[in-house]
Amino acid sequence: MFNNKLLLVAAIALLAGCTSKQEKACQEEADVAETVMQARLNYGGFAEATYMLAGDNDELREQLRPIIHDAFEYGRGGTATYEKTKQVFRDKYYQQCMERPAP
């Protein structure tokens, strides 16, 4: 009986470790999404926002392109404020990340 409890505690500890790694990765992804939305709101055009985020780094431009495109397609939703728009976009990416299976 004791071994079963110990095994259960160990399994929970391992799962918690995976969850925290995934949560950290999702927080980082959400931070990037929020930064992209901030660039979208501060700089009117797609090219300007891309340059402000990635500069001349072609690899980074390609990695950010889908998020930047999504930010420019994303509607502000009526009376949403600047901060609310960034937060909702950030939350969207965090939730999408958390719904993916953990690596």
What does this structure look like?
- The protein has 103 residues and is mostly helical.
- Residues 1-16 have low confidence and may be disordered.
- It has helices spanning 2-42, 46-54, 58-73, 82-99.
- The chain is 82% helix and 0% strand.
Main sheet: strands, sense, barrel? none
Low-confidence stretches: 1-16
What's the gyration radius in Å? 19 Å
Distance between the termini: 32 Å
**Topology as a string of helices (H) and strands (E):** HHHH
How many E-type strands? 0
Mean residue pLDDT? 80
**What's the overall geometry?**
globular
Provide a concise account of the structure shown:
The protein is mostly helical and 103 residues long. Helix content is 82%, strand content 0%.
Name the features.
4 helices, disordered N terminus, mainly alpha, 103 residues, globular
Helix-strand blueprint:
Blueprint: H1 2-42, H2 46-54, H3 58-73, H4 82-99
